Amino acid sequence: MKYPIKIASAMAAYYAVTGVYQNYISKYFGAQGLTDGEIGVLMAAPPLISLIAQPVWGTLGDRARSKNAVFRLMYVASAILVLSYLISSSFWYLLFAVLAYSFFFTALQPMNDAIVLEALGGRPFGPIRMAGTLTFAIVSPLAGAIIGDNWSASIWMTGALLIVAALVTFLLPNVPGHQSEQGHKKMKFTELLKQKELVLLLGFVMPLQISMGYFYTYFSLHFTELEGANSTLLGLCYTISSIAEVPFLLLSNKLYKRFGAGKLLISAGISVTVRWILLGSLTNVYAVMATQLFHGWGFIVMTVTMAYYINDHVPAELKASGQMLLGVVGFGIARAIGNLGGAACINIWGRQGTFYAAAVLSGLAVVCYFKKYMFAPRDNAQK
User: Fold this and answer.
1) Whole-number pLDDT of residue 1
2) CATH number for the domain including 288?
3) What pLDDT sits at residue 379?
4) Is 185 a member of any domain?
5) Looking at residue 4, what DSSP letter applies?
6) Total domains, the chain
7) What is d(CA 30, CA 96) in angstroms, rounded to the nearest whole number?
8) Residue of 56, 150, 183, 158 lying closest to 111 (CA atoms)
9) Are 57 and 324 in contact (CB under 8 A)?
10) Euclidean distance between CA atoms 47 and 18, whole angstroms
11) Has residue 322 been placed in a domain?
12) What number of CA atoms fall less than 13 Å from residue 339's CA on the CB side?
């Protein structure tokens, strides 16, 4: 199969943005003099606004003549709004700016996945997603080296990369919103909730993503306070986690077809739980960096497996909405709880100790779902 470079470029462009914004935004907020509690609120704002934004953009994408045009609009608006962060360092101003930015940005990944999966037409998604992983791996430490202690540079870099990503959307084959096509009926976002197996799988993913919400908000702050840590090593942490994704991404299509969604998600839950236990125990900066290897059989397995499942089981009229539902649950509800709950737990156990609480949460999810998916026949959430 000829590697579809143009499709892969869309994935690379999105993850170049996240390689800067996701990794360094909490440090930018900290440099503005905000407290852990205020940073927790700002980091919880995107998941909360996504509860509204993702159904809206999913519906617009499914009903538009071109999902690509909607996708492009979201990128341009995100670029303008992220640069507005630089206007003021006031907590209340930043809260407003983050909410406005997040209304557009939080729906970009599921829209990207929906367009790419349809454009591939059944070809393996993993190698294309790997383009995003490798870009993230390169951009993360490079951005850290460029930023140094000038955290405002992370905002300028994010804005510039969002504009580049908007231009890259012109390379993608046009993917229509199927509800705009003759012969396709209009379907509501809520139709997805009638799919029992999808709801059960999302119920398992949610506590895992709650624990990830804590990690993504507070890991950068925790890591840079370890003895010997700096922004370059922080960037390398994310490079390690990205490279660790490669083996699964190369084999994801075969693994999904062989084991199905349920078994893969259980294995991801076990990996996530072990990772949190180690982060709660280790203080050596290089040992903590090594725990990033667990990312390769945790977060990436969850997201790619669910993307496959939704693309296979959701009606054509709701392809974009299906990926948005994953975003609502995995990013919206779960991340908001992880961010805000993490801030409360820090007051009791500290940043490092809260990783044990995350391990308990993800571990309980694995225990509750283990029998259902590990010993179930392959037809049950396995296709």
Assistant:
1) 42
2) 1.20.1250.20
3) 47
4) no
5) -
6) 1
7) 17
8) 56
9) yes
10) 15
11) yes
12) 22
CB of 248 closer than 8 Å to CB of 296: yes
Tell me the longest C-alpha to C-alpha distance in the chain. Answer: 63
Q: Which residues are within 8 A (CB) of 13 and not within 5 positions of it... i.e. 6 or more apart?
A: 135, 161, 164, 165, 168
Residue 186 lies in a domain: no
Structural tokens at position 336: 């908001």
According to the model, what pLDDT value does residue 333 have? Answer: 87
What residues make up the domain containing 290?
Answer: 5-173+193-374
Q: Which residues of the chain have pLDDT under 50?
A: 1-2, 379-380
H-type alpha helices, the chain: 5-31, 36-63, 67-83, 91-105, 108-120, 126-147, 152-168, 196-224, 231-281, 285-290, 299-313, 319-327, 334-374
**End-to-end alpha-carbon separation of the chain, Å?**
24
pLDDT digits (tens, 9 = 90+) for 337-374: 888 898 889 989 998 999 999 999 999 999 999 988 88
Q: Are 168 and 13 in contact (CB under 8 A)?
A: yes
* Structure tokens belonging to residue 240: 């390690």
Report d(CA 173, CA 209) in Å as an integer.
32
Residues 242 and 140: beta-carbon distance below 8 Å: yes
Instruction: Decide if 182 is inside a domain.
Output: no
pLDDT digits (tens, 9 = 90+) for 261-305: 999 999 999 999 999 999 999 999 999 999 999 999 998 999 999
Tell me, rounded to whole angstroms, the distance of Cα 195 from its chain centroid: 23
